[in-house]
Amino acid sequence: MTEKRIRMIKDKLSSLNPTKIEIEDQGHLHVGHPGSKSGGHFKLTIVSECFKNKSLIERHRIIYDALESLMKTEIHALSIKANSPNEKN
């Protein structure tokens, strides 16, 4: 299930044309957490030109908009690090 969810996340984020995308399953850190049954816990690192000159909140909004349908089913928690290509990754 985890690999399927990661693939779904990557597919949704492909619209942002990332030059780098890493998704780490962090479900093992949340065993027993009530929300862990309804969706996965993930750490996302993404680099895209679309984040250039955007605030942290704007970057997160872009990502959450792209993942909107998955946030209600496949993703329970998401930690995000989003940079433009000219920023330290």
Task: Summarize the SSE layout with pairings.
Layout: H1 2-13, E1 20-25, E2 40-47, H2 56-66, H3 68-71, E3 75-83
Parallel strand pairs: 2-3
Antiparallel strand pairs: 1-2
Molecular structure report:
With about 90 residues, the protein is an alpha+beta fold. The protein contains three helices and three strands, in the order H-E-E-H-H-E. It has a three-stranded mixed sheet. The termini are far apart.
List the main descriptive attributes of the protein structure presented here.
single chain; 89 residues; alpha+beta; 30% helix
Low-confidence stretches: none
* Estimated share of beta-strand residues: 25-35%
Strand order in space, largest sheet: 1-2-3
Described by strand count, sense and barrel closure, the largest sheet is: 3 strands, mixed
| Distance from first to last alpha carbon | 28 Å
Short description:
The chain is α+β, with helices and mostly antiparallel strands and 89 residues long. Helix content is 30%, strand content 26%.
